[in-house]
């Protein structure tokens, strides 16, 4: 527990401060306009944005990119990031070091057989992108249905 407080927590706080400072320097309106244009398309919202967030910001900072999606799309974006945190590890271990032990176990078995891990890592990444797209869309649909239901119940009350 103490190692979490002394190592991960300061890193997360520094990265949060850095991202907020960067957004302030660029201008929040510019960043929001860019992200609105990017996330207008479902394909980019649930594939490119989570992939970029995990690659550049790593886990757990990638979830801060949810700040730039609409309110009813945030649960789906976070679900896409959660779902992609493991598949990206095969090619880009820096993205989610907590999952690295799973990939190294798989890689050890494959290298014992005398095979390369790269084809599996590429397939794993591609399937991960397909899965996050599907999960993002399903979660967005469910979220919007629940928000409609909640709104209707509040109007009746």
From TrEMBL:
Keywords from the UniProt entry: Membrane, Transmembrane, Transmembrane helix
Chain segments annotated as transmembrane = 6-26, 46-66, 121-142
Q: Which InterPro entries match?
A: PTS_IID_sorb (IPR004699)
Q: Where on the tree of life does the source sit, at the highest rank?
A: Bacteria
Question: What is one cellular component GO term in this UniProt entry?
Answer: membrane
Q: Name one GO biological process term.
A: phosphoenolpyruvate-dependent sugar phosphotransferase system
Q: Which PANTHER family match?
A: PTS SYSTEM GLUCITOL/SORBITOL-SPECIFIC EIIC COMPONENT, PTS SYSTEM GLUCITOL_SORBITOL-SPECIFIC EIIC COMPONENT
UniProt name for this protein = PTS sorbitol transporter subunit IIC
What's the source species' lineage?
Bacteria, Bacillati, Bacillota, Clostridia, Lachnospirales
């Amino acid at each position: 527990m103490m190692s979490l407080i002394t190592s991960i927590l300061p890193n997360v706080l520094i990265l949060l401060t850095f991202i907020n400072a960067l957004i302030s320097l660029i201008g929040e309106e510019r960043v929001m306009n860019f992200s609105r244009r990017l996330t207008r398309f479902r394909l980019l919202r649930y594939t490119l944005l989570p992939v970029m967030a995990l690659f550049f910001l790593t886990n757990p900072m990638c979830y801060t990119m949810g700040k730039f999606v609409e309110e009813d799309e945030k649960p789906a974006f976070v679900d896409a990031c959660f779902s992609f945190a493991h598949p990206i590890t095969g090619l880009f271990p820096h993205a989610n070091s907590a999952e690295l032990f799973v990939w190294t176990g798989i890689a050890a078995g494959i290298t014992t057989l005398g095979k390369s891990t790269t084809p599996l890592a590429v397939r794993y990444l591609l399937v991960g992108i397909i899965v996050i797209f599907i999960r993002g869309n399903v979660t967005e649909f469910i979220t919007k249905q629940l928000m409609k239901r909640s709104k209707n119940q509040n109007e009746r009350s």
